[in-house]
């Protein structure tokens, strides 16, 4: 089984993240008082990588956290299988910080909606921005990303697979037909 | 990400632990970690059960368990309908079944049932067609108490595997002892039940991983956790005990008895305590006591149980 197309190679993933890091610095006029919070699963390594880049570029250690949105999903009463709750870890005060929420793929926007609610329950950040590696369209809510690695027009019958070294032993973004994955 | 199917089919109710695999029980304990984190936040609430109504049906007095369940359900954003029998038409002779029919027409999504009769929660499960959590039925079972005990022990030792848990007191009348004797061995621990012979039904020795003894020193020797049960003073009338003093002299959990236990063994009590009867104040308030921890953990465990029973039902 092979993907329909490779959207980003390892080098392209790296460059996209470097560009996002630059955009973050530009928009926030530096990296002071920022925090990077990754959404489970692949948003977490992406947030850590962005933190490393910010540290190299600006010499600022930006704290990172992880967010599980299971208890905030809007489809909990409908799901057939019980979702596993994973760890939320935000070991710093959100007050007066601008938080950059990091996820791998932006699709319907429902995960981001849940993440915003989860985040605000943890404290009141000075602002929240959104960074994603891939924006594949098909939004069901009025949500947009502030930083996008790759805009990718897709069909609903397609699946975007983000693979990362930390979770999948390789960096790549692939486009698959849903049928091929069944 | 969904729960692996290796956990086995999900039981619709938590009446006892009969249908619950160790994996599923482990998942309840794991998720309680997250619930404890929620309780530590500025906003101690998550929207997971929004729109659902949970009925706290208490046909027997219990301030602690009822409060704990009520808060747990609220912290998960469920609406809570509290039905306390003393103040209701049950005292006017309405049957359990009639009461249930009335509650059902309020569109209740789940029941938490406390009743003095063993099997009451099973009855509610059968008639209501909704998920039921047994909050104590007669002397039969009190599963969320056992789960919070298991969780408290696990918090201390990381796992229950190979741990020895001594439970002392009125075993005969204790649903807490029965539920723990059912649960803890499923999670890999050994349970020793200990009390005067009149309060120690020999049949319990047939349960896997459970042994009985009337000798408190033997029960506590090498134990990682020592649990004292509440002694109901009214048992005196039943002729089960010579005198309370005699009981306390032999079976009280105190510093002397705890010297027999593993060093650092923790002290548990399901509450409310009869201080200086089944447990000394030194033991109850000492550094080994986890009694207040149990209360805190109880809320998290009940949130986790509600999540496990009410999410992903269709």
TrEMBL record, chain A:
Q: Does the keyword Transferase apply?
A: yes
Name one matching Pfam family.
Answer: Pribosyltran
Q: Which UniProt keywords apply?
A: Glycosyltransferase, Transcription, Transcription regulation, Transferase
Which EC number(s) does UniProt give?
2.4.2.9
InterPro entries xrefs: PRTase-like, PRTase_dom, PyrR, PyrR_bifunctional
Specify the Phosphoribosyltransferase domain's residue ranges. 8-166
Q: Which reaction does it catalyse?
A: UMP + diphosphate = 5-phospho-alpha-D-ribose 1-diphosphate + uracil
Superkingdom to which the source organism belongs: Bacteria
- Asked if the keyword Cytoplasm belongs to this entry, the reply reads no
Please report, in chain numbering, the residue ranges of the motif PRPP-binding.
Answer: 99-111
Fetch the CDD domains from UniProt: PRTases_typeI (cd06223)
Q: Name one GO biological process term.
A: regulation of DNA-templated transcription
What SUPFAM superfamilies does the annotation carry?
A: PRTase-like
**MF GO annotations:** uracil phosphoribosyltransferase activity
Alphabetized HAMAP family for the sequence: PyrR
Q: Which family, according to UniProt?
A: Belongs to the purine/pyrimidine phosphoribosyltransferase family. PyrR subfamily.
User: What task does this protein carry out?
Assistant: Also displays a weak uracil phosphoribosyltransferase activity which is not physiologically significant.
- According to UniProt, the name of this protein is Bifunctional protein PyrR
Record organism: Deinococcus soli (ex Cha et al. 2016)
């Amino acid at each position: 089984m092979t993907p329909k197309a490779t959207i980003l190679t390892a080098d392209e993933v790296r460059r996209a993240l470097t560009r996002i890091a630059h955009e973050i610095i530009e928009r926030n006029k530096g990296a002071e008082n920022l925090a990077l919070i990754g959404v489970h699963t692949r948003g977490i390594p992406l947030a850590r990588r962005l933190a490393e880049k910010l540290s190299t570029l600006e010499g600022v250690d930006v704290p990172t956290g992880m967010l599980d949105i299971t208890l905030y999903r809007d489809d909990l009463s409908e799901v057939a299988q019980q979702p596993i709750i994973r760890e939320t870890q935000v070991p710093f005060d959100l007050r007066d910080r601008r938080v950059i929420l990091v996820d791998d793929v932006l699709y319907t926007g429902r995960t981001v909606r849940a993440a915003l609610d989860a985040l605000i329950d943890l404290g009141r950040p000075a602002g929240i921005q959104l960074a994603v590696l891939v924006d594949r369209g098909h939004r069901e809510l009025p949500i947009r990303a502030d930083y996008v690695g790759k805009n990718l027009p897709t069909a609903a019958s397609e699946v975007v697979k983000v693979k990362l070294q930390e979770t999948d032993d390789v960096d790549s973004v692939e486009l698959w037909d849903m049928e091929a994955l069944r | 990400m969904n729960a692996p199917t290796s956990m086995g089919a999900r039981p619709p109710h938590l009446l006892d632990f009969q249908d619950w695999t160790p994996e599923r029980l482990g998942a309840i304990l794991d998720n309680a970690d997250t619930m404890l984190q929620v309780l530590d936040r500025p906003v101690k609430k998550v929207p997971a059960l929004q729109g659902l109504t949970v009925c706290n049906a208490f046909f027997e007095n219990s301030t602690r368990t009822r409060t704990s369940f009520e808060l747990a359900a609220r912290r998960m954003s469920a609406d809570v309908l509290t039905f306390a029998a003393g103040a209701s038409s049950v005292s006017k002779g309405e049957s359990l079944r009639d009461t249930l029919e009335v509650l059902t027409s309020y569109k209740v999504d789940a029941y938490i049932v406390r009743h003095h009769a063993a099997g009451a929660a099973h009855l509610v499960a059968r008639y209501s067609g909704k998920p039921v959590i047994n909050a104590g039925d007669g002397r039969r079972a009190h599963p969320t108490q056992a789960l919070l005990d298991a969780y408290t022990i696990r918090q201390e030792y990381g796992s229950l595997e190979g741990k020895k848990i001594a439970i002392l007191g009125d075993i005969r009348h204790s649903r807490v002892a029965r539920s723990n004797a059912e649960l803890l061995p499923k999670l890999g621990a050994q349970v020793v039940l200990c009390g005067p012979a009149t309060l120690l039904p020999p049949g319990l020795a047939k349960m896997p991983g459970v042994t009985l003894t009337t000798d408190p020193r033997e029960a506590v020797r090498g134990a990682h956790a020592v649990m004292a049960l509440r002694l109901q003073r009214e048992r005196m009338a039943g002729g089960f005990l010579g005198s309370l003093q005699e009981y306390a002299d032999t079976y009280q959990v105190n510093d002397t008895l705890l010297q027999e236990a593993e060093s650092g063994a923790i002290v548990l009590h399901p509450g409310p305590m009869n201080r200086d009867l089944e447990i000394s104040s030194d033991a109850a308030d000492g550094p080994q006591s986890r009694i207040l921890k149990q209360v805190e953990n109880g809320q998290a465990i009940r949130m986790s149980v509600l999540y496990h029973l009410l999410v992903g039902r269709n």
